[in-house]
C-alpha cells in the first residue's frame, strides 16, 4: 500500500494508537452503522452471524435517504440523479425466489423459500438466503411477504414438522468439516395411527446411505376433497399446505426431502367417506378440510351434497322475481329466437370465513344475442326523463355591516346569488373607503353585487342556451339604500359618494333588474358580514345548503 501511494504522490497519514477521536467522521459513522446493524438483526430476528449482510443492507438504504445536514441523498450527490426507493424491502422478511425454467425439473417447485438479506452489488436484484439449500443467491425474480419475518415463519413450520432450523455459520472462522451440511432435509416417518395395519414397522433411525440427523415424527393427514363428481383423497403434512394425490407424488415428495416412508400407511381409496388421518383431528378441523364447490349449472347444484341448500336459494330467487314482477309471461312468437337463461351460484361468508348463506341468481344470457338481431330489445330500457328548462329565476342577496372594524372603521360587505333555489356565486369583501352611514355602506355593497349580477345575467341571456329569466331581483335590507339607488337627486349627505358607485343607478333606470326590500332575518347575505348565534347560523347554513341534516 505504501509503495502504491508513493508512486501516485500521495502522503499517507495515520492516527495515533487508541485515539479514535482523531478520525471522528469515520468513527462516528461506524457507530451509526453499528446501531443500524443492531436494529436490523433485532427486528428481523436474524442471527448475529449475518451482521455482514445487515451492514451492506443498512448502507444501501442509508445512501438513499436524506439526512439532516442536506436535502439531497448521498446517492444523488454522487450520481446527480434522485434514487428510487420503491424497491426497498424489510431486511429479514420472507421471500420466495423464482427458479428459472432452464434449470427447473418437471416436478420441482417454481419458487424456493428464503430470507431477504439485501441488494445485489453488481446486478439489479436482491440477495436471498435459501434456507433449505444453505446458500446465498442473487436474483431479480423474487416475491416478498413483508408482513412475515423469514426466520420466525420458517421456525414455526419446522416446529410443526418436527425439526429445528440450523443455519450454517459461514461467517465463523472455526472448522466446519464436522458440521452436517444438510440439516434441513432429514425427516423420518413412523407409524402414528393404527387405522390401517402396516405390513412392516420401521424404526426411527437414519439410513446408512445418508448422513441424516434424526428428527421427530412427520405426521401425515388423510383428507377428503369434496367435488360434484365425487371426492378426491389427498395427503398433507401437518403444518404445510401440500396436497399429494397419488403414490407417485408421495414417493417423489419423500425422495426430494429424504423422508423414509412406508407405502402401506397410505390409502387412496375413495370408498371411505370419513377423513382418516394419522393425527388426531377435531370435528371442526375435519370440516374445514372439506372443499365447498360452487356449481356451474343447475344439474351440478341438484347433484351436489348441498343440493337442499341450493334448492332453497333458487326458490327464494324465483319468489323474489315473482313478487317484483320482473317478467311478463307471453306466448312464444313465431320466427323469434328465444334467449336462454342460467343460474349463477355463489356462497356468502362472514368475517370469520363461515358460510352465511347460499345464493342463486337467475340471469339472461345476453352474450348469445347477435347485434344484428334485435340486440337492443333484449332487456327493458330504463331512462330518466328531464324536462327542458325554459325559464329561470335569478336572485341576489346583498348586505353590509357598518364600521365594525375599530382599527380603520371600514365596513364589510357580502352577497350571494341564486339561480332558482341553487346558490351559484358568493363573495365577502372589505370596502375600499370608510362609509359615513349604514345607507352608504349598503349602497356600496349593492353596487359590488350588481357587477357580478350583470355578468351572470348575460351568461343566461346567451341565445345559444335558449333560456329566459322570469325574474331577476336584488334584495337589500336597507330602505334608505334602495330609495337612494332609485332617486337621481343628490343632497348634502350623499354628495361625497364616489361617482363609480352610481353605476347602480343606471342599471335600475334601464330596468336591467329590480331591487326590493327584504327583512334582515330573511337576508341570506347577512351571514357574510357579522357573527351570529348558533341557532341563526345553523338556519342560514341550511338555507345555503352548506351541510346536510
Distance between the termini: 81 Å
Counted by DSSP, the helix tally is 13
Side by side, the strands of the main sheet go: 4-3-2-1-5
Indicate the multimeric state. Answer: single chain
- As residue ranges, the low-confidence spans are 160-216, 226-231, 271-290
Instruction: Decide which structural class fits the backbone.
Output: alpha+beta
Listing every helix as H and every strand as E from the N terminus to the C terminus, the arrangement reads: HHHHEEEEEHEEEHEHHHEEEEEHEHHEH
Computed Rg: 42 Å
Q: Roughly how much helix do the residues carry, as a percent range?
A: 25-40%
Please give the number of β-strands. 16
- Tell me, briefly, the overall form: flat
Beta-strand share of residues: 15-25%
Largest sheet: 5 strands, antiparallel
Mean pLDDT over the full residue set: 76
GO molecular function: hydrolase activity; metal ion binding; nucleic acid binding
Region (Disordered): 187-206
Keywords: Hydrolase, Metal-binding
Pfam family, one: SH3_retrovirus
Set down the secondary structure blueprint.
Layout: H1 2-7, H2 24-44, H3 51-62, H4 74-79, E1 93-98, E2 111-119, E3 126-130, E4 135-139, E5 142-149, H5 150-161, E6 187-188, E7 220-227, E8 230-237, H6 247-256, E9 259-260, H7 283-289, H8 298-303, H9 307-324, E10 341-349, E11 355-364, E12 391-400, E13 412-419, E14 422-430, H10 438-460, E15 468-476, H11 479-486, H12 503-509, E16 514-517, H13 534-543
Parallel strand pairs: 6-9, 12-15, 15-16
Antiparallel strand pairs: 1-2, 1-5, 2-3, 3-4, 7-8, 10-11, 12-13, 13-14
Helix pairs in contact: 2-3, 10-11
Amino acid at each position: 500500500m505504501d509503495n502504491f501511494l508513493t508512486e501516485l504522490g500521495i502522503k499517507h497519514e495515520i492516527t495515533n494508537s487508541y485515539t479514535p477521536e482523531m478520525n471522528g467522521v469515520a468513527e462516528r459513522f461506524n457507530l451509526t452503522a453499528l446501531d443500524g446493524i443492531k436494529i436490523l438483526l433485532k427486528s428481523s430476528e436474524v442471527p448475529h452471524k449475518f451482521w455482514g449482510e445487515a451492514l451492506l443492507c443498512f448502507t444501501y438504504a442509508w445512501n438513499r435517504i436524506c439526512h439532516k445536514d442536506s436535502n439531497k441523498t448521498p446517492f444523488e450527490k454522487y450520481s446527480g440523479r434522485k434514487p428510487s426507493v420503491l424497491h426497498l424491502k424489510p431486511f429479514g422478511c420472507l421471500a420466495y425466489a423464482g427458479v428459472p425454467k432452464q434449470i427447473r425439473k418437471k416436478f420441482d417447485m417454481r419458487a424456493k423459500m428464503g430470507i431477504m438479506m439485501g441488494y445485489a452489488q453488481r446486478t439489479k436484484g436482491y440477495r436471498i438466503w435459501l434456507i433449505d439449500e444453505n446458500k446465498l443467491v442473487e436474483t431479480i425474480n423474487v416475491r416478498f411477504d413483508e408482513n412475515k419475518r423469514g426466520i420466525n415463519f420458517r421456525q414455526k413450520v419446522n416446529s410443526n414438522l418436527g425439526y429445528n432450523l440450523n443455519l450454517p455459520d459461514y461467517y465463523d472462522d472455526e472448522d466446519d468439516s464436522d458440521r452436517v451440511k444438510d440439516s434441513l432435509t432429514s425427516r423420518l416417518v413412523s407409524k402414528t395411527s393404527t387405522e390401517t395395519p402396516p405390513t412392516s414397522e420401521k424404526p426411527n433411525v437414519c439410513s446408512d446411505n445418508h448422513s441424516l440427523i434424526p428428527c421427530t415424527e412427520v405426521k401425515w393427514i388423510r383428507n377428503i376433497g369434496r367435488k360434484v363428481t365425487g371426492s378426491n383423497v389427498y395427503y398433507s403434512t401437518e403444518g404445510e399446505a401440500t396436497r399429494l394425490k397419488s403414490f407417485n407424488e408421495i414417493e417423489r415428495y419423500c425422495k426430494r426431502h429424504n423422508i423414509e416412508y412406508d407405502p402401506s400407511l397410505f390409502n387412496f381409496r375413495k370408498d371411505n367417506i370419513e377423513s382418516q388421518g394419522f393425527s388426531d383431528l377435531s370435528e371442526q378441523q375435519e370440516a374445514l378440510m372439506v372443499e365447498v364447490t360452487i356449481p356451474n349449472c343447475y344439474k351440478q347444484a341438484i347433484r351436489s351434497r348441498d343440493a337442499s341448500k341450493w334448492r332453497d336459494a333458487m326458490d327464494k330467487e324465483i319468489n323474489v322475481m315473482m313478487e317484483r314482477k320482473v317478467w311478463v309471461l307471453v306466448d312464444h312468437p313465431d320466427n323469434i329466437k328465444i334467449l336462454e337463461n342460467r343460474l349463477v351460484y355463489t356462497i356468502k361468508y362472514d368475517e370469520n370465513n363461515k358460510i352465511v348463506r347460499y345464493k342463486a341468481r337467475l340471469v339472461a344470457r345476453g352474450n348469445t344475442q347477435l347485434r344484428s338481431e334485435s340486440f337492443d330489445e333484449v332487456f327493458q330500457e330504463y331512462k330518466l326523463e328531464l324536462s327542458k328548462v325554459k325559464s329561470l329565476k335569478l336572485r341576489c342577496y346583498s348586505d353590509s355591516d357598518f364600521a365594525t372594524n375599530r382599527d380603520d372603521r371600514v365596513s364589510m360587505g357580502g352577497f350571494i346569488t341564486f339561480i332558482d333555489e341553487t346558490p351559484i356565486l358568493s363573495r365577502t369583501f372589505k370596502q375600499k373607503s370608510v362609509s359615513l352611514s349604514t345607507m352608504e355602506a349598503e349602497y356600496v355593497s349593492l353596487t359590488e353585487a350588481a357587477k357580478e349580477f350583470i355578468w351572470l345575467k348575460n351568461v343566461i341571456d346567451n341565445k345559444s342556451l335558449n333560456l329566459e329569466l322570469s325574474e331577476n331581483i336584488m334584495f337589500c335590507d336597507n330602505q334608505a339604500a334602495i330609495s337612494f339607488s332609485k332617486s337621481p337627486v343628490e343632497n348634502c349627505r350623499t354628495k361625497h359618494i364616489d361617482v363609480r358607485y352610481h353605476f347602480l343607478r343606471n342599471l335600475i333606470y334601464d330596468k336591467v333588474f329590480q331591487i326590493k326590500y327584504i327583512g334582515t332575518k330573511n337576508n341570506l347575505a347577512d351571514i357574510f358580514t357579522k357573527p351570529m348565534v348558533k341557532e341563526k347560523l345553523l338556519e342560514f347554513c341550511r338555507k345555503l345548503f352548506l351541510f346536510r341534516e
